[in-house]
Amino acid sequence: MELRGPVVAVEEPRTVNTRDGTRDVAEITMRPGRGEEPPVTVSLWGSWAETAELLVTGMTLLVTEPSREEFRGEARYATTAESYVVVEPEFMVDVTDIREWVQCSRQYYLSKFTSASLSYPLVKGSLVHEVFGDLLRGRDLETSVEERVADAGLKLGLLDRDRTAVAEDVQSNARAIERWLQQGTLTEDDEWRSELTLISETFGIKGRADAVRRGDPVELKTGKNTDAEPRFEDKVQATCYALLLGEHGQTPETGTLLYTKNAVLNRTEETGDLSPAKEFSIGPGLLQFVVRARNELAAMEYDISVPTGYESNAICEYCFEQDTCMVVSGRLDQESKAGSVGGALPSAEREYFDRMYRATETERREIHREYAKLWTQSAAERAADDKALLGLQPQGRSQRVDGTWELRAENDDTAVSKIREGDTVLASDGHPTRGDTELGRVVRLETDADGTTEIIVHADEPIELRRLDVYPSDYGINGLLTAMHDAVLKGSQRRRDILFGRRDPTFGETNATFIDNNTAQNRAVELAVTANDCALIHGPPGTGKTYTLARAVRALCERGERVLLSAFTNRAVDNALEQLREQGFSEFVRIGTEHGVSDSMQDARLEHRGEPEERAATLRNAPVVAGTAATCGSSVLKECEFDVAIVDEAGQLTEPGTLAAINLADRFVLVGDHEQLPPVVRDDDSELGTSLFERLIEQYPDAAVTLDKQYRMAQRIQYFSSQTFYDGQLRPATPAVAGQQLAELSAVSSEALPSALQDAVAFVDPNGAMTGNVNRQEADRVAEIVDAYRSAGVAADDIGVIAPFRAQVAAITRRVPSEIDVDTVDRFQGSARAVIVVSFVATDTLDSPIFEDRRRVNVALTRAKKALCLVGDEDALRSDPFYERMLEWAES
Ligand SMILES: Nc1ncnc2c1ncn2[C@@H]1O[C@H](COP(=O)(O)OP(=O)(O)OP(=O)(O)O)[C@@H](O)[C@H]1O
């Protein structure tokens, strides 16, 4: 039995005399049943009374196992010895955050700004952890160390570390583990699990336990500890895992900490307890303590306030982070237990930091809401939302060379989901939080001609693969905060003057001609090459953005500048590199994962594995380094410096997302189109919804150039977009572009097309009906239209179909040959087809927008080169002035 719902009133805690002596109690009123039921009073006893001080009305509270009694016809509840009180249970706190919070609340806050810094202790720490996992999976120590150290070649090289010395260091730490594993206390049937992903519905805590032995948590620490007891914060961490494990069965009573460095200590020099493994008992007091610590953290994040350090008992004098802490409080004018140094930043910068911090944390909260849906939504609801693939039939599993597992399954269902190859997912035997779950990577997800989908997932442990769920990761959030911190607190004065509108960007001069057949493109390269601060290149659809960008990269390199080439998506990064190759330039390295990078760029991909010095040199000496903006915040790229950062698709990046890339360079060039897809944010009113590109282009029109000649669309097709989004400035680059026709494609005879499709822009009303997000009649009609183009000789890969909703995408996919690309707008951005068919789905009235944003329509309509067919309900479209104008153009 539990009470879960919003708090409606809170009373101050008081001390009362009871049969058992004096006790604290606080009374609160809440609406259980997630706010559906009438208010009830709950007495929070003992140490839970303190929790009442954290509460404000509106917060969600969870009380487990309360007692209930009737008092004058009213139900009254109270906490019992078994109860837990959880503040904002849907706010998912990571176990490592609780550990940090207990050490120092300020340190928890500061660590948001130092994500992904490269340091030897961190790299060594993860190597030892990996080796530990390997040993548990039965790999032999020497092979494991050798392999893992080789895999970390690049990072070790950037840290100027020698491979053999690192291997020895890791090996000596790992020996402690090996010896402990071999101790007589362990028997053959000792049950082990490594790297267990745990998500708690009750406590709002998630984490990955290093290992679980016979149901008890084992945590690995690469430091030393010569006390008999584990360190308090380490106990806190292991206790969190115990709490999470208890949710699925028995709560463990013992936790183990393995201090690997103890094994390396010299017994003649060190005194104390040198044994690496230290056990401790986990009692109710400790379990409740970690929940209370988590509650404090969740309450602080509820209103996104900044901790002062007084929330925990840390002693600042002993803290390694004291200086950083004081600088941050000084610069941002924050109250801090450690005090502060230096003057505050100008108020505009502090306000900006504050706004962006709040917006980013709000995004985190939205991601956590997604987490909660893992259990608040039923399996069917998740499948209907495209967030899960259910009912998979396991097809076996096998251990891979590195000891991890390949899990195979099949699915006959035609269900679609957002899950794609390369994604990190929650793979489970039935339920993502209640079942046996592993965090895994989808390496294959392919549907064959008879509709069977083959699924392969790589994971640490061999589970039965029956279900996949989208994993709502907040991994990137700290990257955004770090980028913002680095830009505002560490950025040069000159850069900040530009970002905060205090000085106009300046340019040098050049007499060179870079592109001789397109004035705007030539001007764009000129700006990029001569910019002392920044240049902005606005590229409407098909105007040669990529071509111009590649030319600019080359021109900069010719002048001896080192260039960072970045974009929002992997695809755009690869497109730019392909264009560079076409222009005869190939001195670049590509940073990215094997899955992220396209096949054609695998040869340019920087391997991490190898000889450290050689790996680091390859990166350090490359004239051009390319990777997505998200990768720019990685520990590897943060070690690099560039003269110029060129960022494509800048209109799709949030401000902090853009800062991650431009922080690495002295000057920057943003390339994009703010009239196409905006940044994707979960909170509609978010400050993050406007890109830095859009803000700067409005602020500094003189630093910008618009490419105005497009090389893609027939004149008839481009007209609506040009008029509606580009003040009529967009024009075909050549008469050939303007006058292109379907009949120019080989084997195509346009006479074979039905008369309705003869025009370059056509409109068809299939008289369908929308149910949910699907319009079946319209899907049938789209299939007929695709068929008509095919019969007229258009090749399948020349046709693309775009629909606003995934459900309609699925409905159409089932009706057309598998070679035809059918997808949402986001997947089509940056590409084009000779023929594009757009399905609008909506019928009768437009209660909710078809494409959430007009800019998405712009993208959809401008993917077509020679023929565009709009399929939708005339009445619905005419009910909105924007779509009405679109119809008038289509029917003119
Ligand atoms: N100055 C030019 N001279 C000749 N061809 C050009 C020129 N600029 C671009 N093109 C050609 O026009 C086509 C479109 O260019 P590109 O792919 O660079 O467009 P884009 O603006 O990046 O498109 P998108 O809007 O999809 O990002 C390409 O085939 C490119 O080679």
From TrEMBL:
It catalyses: ATP + H2O = ADP + phosphate + H(+). Belongs to the DNA2/NAM7 helicase family. This is DNA helicase. InterPro entries: Coronavir_polyprotein_1ab, DNA2/NAM7-like_C, DNA2/NAM7_AAA_11, DNA_replication_fac_Dna2_N, NA-bd_OB-fold, P-loop_NTPase, PDDEXK-like_dom_sf, SF1_C_Upf1. It comes from the Archaea. It is an enzyme of class 3 (hydrolase). One of its GO terms (biological process) is DNA repair. Keywords: 4Fe-4S, ATP-binding, DNA damage, DNA repair, DNA replication, DNA-binding, Helicase, Hydrolase, Iron, Iron-sulfur, Metal-binding, Multifunctional enzyme, Nuclease, Nucleotide-binding. PANTHER family: DNA-BINDING PROTEIN SMUBP-2, DNA2/NAM7 HELICASE FAMILY MEMBER. GO terms for molecular function: 4 iron, 4 sulfur cluster binding; 5'-3' DNA helicase activity; ATP binding; DNA binding; hydrolase activity; metal ion binding; nuclease activity. Residues 40-189 form the DNA replication factor Dna2 N-terminal domain. CDD domains: SF1_C_Upf1. It comes from Halocatena salina. Its EC number is 3.6.4.12. Pfam families: AAA_11, AAA_12, Dna2. Residues 689-874 form the DNA2/NAM7 helicase-like C-terminal domain. Residues 518-609, 616-681 form the DNA2/NAM7 helicase helicase domain. Its cofactor is [4Fe-4S] cluster.
